[in-house]
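To: structure desk
From: M.T.
Subject: fold request, one chain
Message: Could you run this one when you get a chance? Sequence is below, nothing fancy, just the single chain.
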Amino acid sequence: MITVIDIAKPKFYKGQKVEFIGGLGTIRECHPNSGNWSYLVGMEMGFRTENG
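Reply: Done. Structure tokens follow.
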């Protein structure tokens, strides 16, 4: 059995809003990196908590 992984297209695109465990953000950059995609995500600022 041969598995083919298509990395020609990134899963997320520049400017796309994303949600993850740490909060909300926007994809700023994406680059192919050793068979995967690397993303730079800018997190949205939220309310400041007591613990910083």
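Reply (cont.): The mean pLDDT is 82. Let me know if you need anything else for the meeting.
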